[in-house]
Amino acid sequence: MNITNKKIFPISLIVIGIIVILFSTGSSILAYALLGIPAGNLIIWFGFISIQLAVYSFNKGFKASKSMVGKFIRILMLVLTIVSILWFGIAFLLSGNFNFDFSSSATGYLGSPEASILYWNIIYVLIVTLIVLMITHSLLRYFERLKDTK
Question: In angstroms, rounded to a whole number, what is the distance separating the alpha carbons of residues 30 and 12?
Fold first, then answer.
């Protein structure tokens, strides 16, 4: 089966839409435990992956630009996608539990408030970097097209 950008983008948007609805309504599904893992943690993980795939497929893999900056943006997007895929494992390693709870009574780094700071910074980077790369890529393509018309 050949999965194309035209298939990935709408599927990703549907997943993101469902996740936004679940979280904005405070659905009880989020607290449901699947094999001891809160469904909300799994759902947000799928959301991180979906948003990366949506942006990546919407921009057709960031392949349009042949410049060094364009290639760098593409590599960064791939790295963000990989980090999104690994996010659940990273969050588990930082918190030491599937609830992703952090406590001031933690004896070491894992599960501590310091680990919580890294956990939240990873989440911020996944979202903010995505937005910055989208804007940068759009501006880059705009100026490349402007240059090509002259």
Answer: 19
Percent of residues, the chain, with pLDDT higher than 70: 97
What pTM was estimated for this model as a whole?
Answer: 0.86
Residue range 42-87, pLDDT digits in tens:
999 999 999 999 998 888 877 877 788 888 999 999 999 999 999 9
Q: Residue 83 and residue 120: Cα distance in Å, rounded?
A: 14
Task: Give 108's pLDDT tier (boundaries 50, 70, 90).
Answer: confident
CA angle 70, 73, 74 (to 5 degrees): 90
- What the block records as the tokens of 119 is 């956990």
3-state secondary structure 29-82: HHHCEECCEEHHHHHHHHHHHHHHHHHHHHCHHHCCCCCHHHHHHHHHHHHHHH
Q: How many CB atoms lie within 10 A of CB 102?
A: 20
Residue 99, classed as helix, strand or coil, is coil
* 43 Cβ neighbours under 8 A, 6+ residues apart: 19, 22, 23, 29, 30
Looking up tokens 């002259």 gives 150
